[in-house]
Structure formats: structure tokens, C-alpha cells
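Q: C-alpha cells for this one, please.
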Amino acid sequence: MRGKRIFLFSKIAAAGALLLLALSSLAPASEREKTDRAAAPADPIAANGARMLAEGRHTFRDDTFGDQVFWSRILGIHEALKQVSPRTALAVGLKVDAEALPPGLLAQLKSGGPATVASHGKAVDLDDPAVTAALLRLNAVVGVRGFFNQDGTLRSAGITCALCHSTVDDSVAPGIGKRLDGWANRDLNVGAIVNLAPNLQPVASLLGVDEPTVRTVLKSWGPGRFDAELFLDGKAFRPDGKTAATLIPPAFGLAGVDGHTFTGWGSVTYWNAFVANLEMHGQGRFWDPRLNDPVKFPIAARNGFGDIQSEHDLITPKLAALQFYQLAIPAPAPPPGSFNAAAAARGKVVFSEAGCAKCHVPPLYTEPGWNRHTPEEIGIDSFQADRSPDGHYRTTPLKGLWAHSKGGYYHDGRFATLRDVVNHYDGHFDLRLSEQKKRDLIEFLKSL
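A: Here is the predicted structure, written as C-alpha cells:
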């Protein structure tokens, strides 16, 4: 009996301790507890996401990864920029961020009157190269960073991700407006800009040709095009004699999408590392043993591009936040009135019934998973696919298609209109779509 009583008292004591513990959690917190709670973020994941978003945006817009060493110290492009007027810069597709401009200058540009810089009160001549230097000093030229000496002269210049993958909304004037991150700059004439560099001999030596040949190749690209594989395989032209350069792709709407490029080299972060090291010529680390293939990638293999090890890595620590920011960029919605809503609704049914959704799976509008196809599957030649490691083309995500229609469709712009694209697949897959269904399908594509 005594043992049972002790056991009963023990149970009561334990229950009392639990009750006191529960009541203590309801008591007012001490000052130290309040401070500790305030110091810790309410949601550490959300806090980390906000930090990475801010860091990634900064990297995307402003980080050269040290590539000014290549563009200026080696090629000397900053010397050419000293002679480039704003009018010429706009003509080759460079864009100006209106939000970086002083109020006085912005107001005058909006009014179309004589532009003045508020801090100096001087008239701005858009044919004066000194104004270009002033815009670079304001960090107002999208994707181009200027670095200046103490006396105000331009010491060097580098490029950022935004050069090719941002544009502006032209809200102030053509080429001047609010940034549109992730949009493909199909006005940008990369070849013409690089051709300004006074010394392209290092590029010629890399490719094993003379400097005039390099300049001829660059001139062949035209607006909105770039050849990312040229430094790997040296193929400047397609078998039909046209440029091997492909259209600059958008960098929006890529969340959930596996392949980042037209030929699916890798994910978003893979391509960021590839471009930052091998195309922008920044300073970092890069590893891809596929580039050691001396047959497919003779230039890359000869120069060790499959294993880049710079003394200072200015790229790798920024890849995570850069990827986070890019995946957060949504595909832009089409402007109101840009498509027929009733026809688009009918076109959505056609899209499904014709089998388009088998590859362009909603809502990603590409395959979830490994989204690649052989050239034979999609009914085109293999030239560009053969320049990639595995010889495939990626299923292009269709959201925001309207925002990168300039220059045509497909990787090389071979189809000038959506009608051309629809006709190609109608013939290749023997769909036998009626004229009405084709029109409706086109309106649906415009609505994405």
C-alpha cells in the first residue's frame, strides 16, 4: 500500500511539474528573451530569400566579374568608348536606365527639349562622346560599367549579364527608359560593339585566323545575335553561308525549366558560370570536361577551357544568388489588346488537341524534366545542335513569347512569324490544321 501511495504521489508531482512548465510558457517574457526573439528573423527562409534576391539583382545588373581586364587591358575597348557618342551607342542597341539619370536631364529628355544635366547646368549634346562618359559615370548604360581615374578619365570598362539580357521600356525615348531585366536585347549589335576594340589580335590568335577575318565575322552577326560557341569550335558560318550566331535568348520565365539555352547545355547556374568565364571573360573557376573533346571543341580543348582556374575567383561566390534572382524573373504578360481573347481560348483547345502540349506542357510550356529533342524529331537541320555536347535542341518555354519576337523564332530566327512556325509543325507532323485553327492557335501563342 505504501509503495502504491508513493507511486501515486510521484504521478501527481510529475503532472504538477508539467502544469507549471505549461503555465510558465504563458508568463511574460524576460527582457533577454524579448531581445533574442527580436534579433532572430521571424522567418529565416524568407529573410534569406530577400537577401539572395537583392544580391542576385546587383550581380545581374552591375557585376563585371573582373572582365574589364580582358575588355580594356587586353582589347582596349575603353579607348574606343571614349570616342562613342550617346547617339551612336543607342544606334548599336545599348540602352540607358532612366532611373539612374539626374532629374534635370530626365525631364528635358522627356520633353524633347535641350537636355541639361542638373548638377552642371550645361546643354547635353547627344553627339558628344563626353556625354557617354558621363552616362557611364552615372552607371546609366545598361550592362556596361565604367571605371574612372581620379581626374575623371575613363580607365577601363567591363560588361555585366544585363548587357544582353536586359532592355528598357522606352518610356522616355527610344532606348531610354525603365529597366526590363531578363528581356533579350534584340537591338544589341554585339559584333559591332566588339569590333570597336582597337586590338582584336588576341581573339584572332585564339581562333587561329588573322584580325581582319575576326572583324568580318563580327560584322556578320547583326543586331540581337551572339555566337557563344565560336570560342569553342571556331565555326563562324553555317553550311548555307549564313552566320552561325544565334539570337540572344530571354532570361525570364526559367523557374522549373531544365535546359537554359537553345541546345540545352545545362541549367541556369551552369550557363551563368559558362558565360561569366568563357564569354564575358571574367575571373573565376569553371569545370566541364565535355569541352576537352578535340574533335567537337578544338579551340576549347586546345586552350583548356574545360578547367578554368583564375587566381582570383570573382564568379563562383555569386552564382547562387544570381541563379535565385534569375529564377524569380517572371515571363511578362502580353499587353492588353495584343491578341484576340476569344480566338486565343479556341486556340488553347487546338494547342492540346494537336499535341503541342505533349512537349510544351502547361504551365511551364516545356517538358518537366529532360526537355531535349533530336533535330529529326522537330524537323530541322542539326548544325546548331551538333555544336552542343549531346546534339539536341531544347523545347523552348513559350511564356512571354511575344516579348522576344524581334529577329524571328527558333534559335537562328529562321521562322520570321508565328504563322511560319505553325506551318512548319503542321507540315512536319501532318496535322492538317484548318486555316481557322491556325489563326486561333497563333492567338493563343500570343496570349502566353
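A few notes: The CA atoms of residues 288 and 306 lie 5 Å apart. The two ends are 80 Å apart (CA to CA).
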